[in-house]
Task: structure prediction
Amino acid sequence: MKQLQNLRLYRSIAIIAGFVVLAVFLIKFHNVWKIPVEESAPQPKQENIDLDDLLSFNDQHQIWEPIAEAEDLAANTPLFDLFTPPNIYYEGSQLIMEPCSQWQFDTTFPLRLKNIKQKKYRLQFEGYIKPDPQSKYVIILHDLEHDQVLRCEEGQSFDSLQFAILSFSMKTIEEDGMIINSPRVQIFDSQNKQKIELTGNTKYYDDRYDVVLENIDGATYILPEIGQEVKIGESTCILNKIEPASKSVTITLIDANNQKFHKHLRML
Result:
C-alpha cells in the first residue's frame, strides 16, 4: 500500500516538472515562432485645423449666405445664420482651404434672378372638428389674404371672401398597416370660377409666382405678375415671361434714355 502511494506521488511530481520545462521552453523560444508582419509605410503627420484660422478664412472670402427672410418662415421657426464652407482637404501633409465658387454678376446686365416663389392658394385647410356624433363637421380654413381663421360648415357661403363650401367628405385609407382618416373639402372659388379640393396635411398652391430679382448691390425687387413693372434706380423693369420648370424668366429693362434691353435670366 505504501509503495502504491509513493508511485502516485512520483507520477504527480513528474507531470508538474514536465509542465514547468514546457513553459520555460515556450518563453525562451517564442520569438522564433512569431509570424513576420509587413510594416506599413509611415504616414505623414497632418496638422490640426485651427478654428480661428478657419473663421478668419471665411471672413476674408465672405462665403456666407445672408440669414433667411423672416416673412418666409413661420412665426415660431428658429432662424439660423448659415454660410457655405470652403473646400477643405489634405494634399500630402499640407492642409488646403479653397473658397467655394462665387456667383459673379454679368457686368453687361445689372440684375440677376434670385428666386421664383410659387404662391400658396389663398385658402388653406387646417383641420376639422366634430363636437358630437349628431352634429355637422366644423371645417377650419386659414384665409391667408386676411390672416384669419375661418370656421365653416358644408354648404356655407362667404360672399365677401368670394368662395363657398360645396362639400366635406372623410375617406378612410390604409397606410403602412394603419387606418388613417383623410378629410377632403371641396370649395367653389368665385374669383377664378374654379372648383378646388383641399386635403388634410397638404398645402395647396396656385399658378401664381413671385419673381425675385437682385441687383449688384444686393437689393431685391419682387415682380408678382407678368406685365408688372418695378422701378430699379432710374430704370424700369417689366416681367414678360416665367418658366418655373427651367427656373428662368424673361424681362425687359428700360433705362433712363428709354432704351430697351431684353434679357433671359436663369437661376444659378
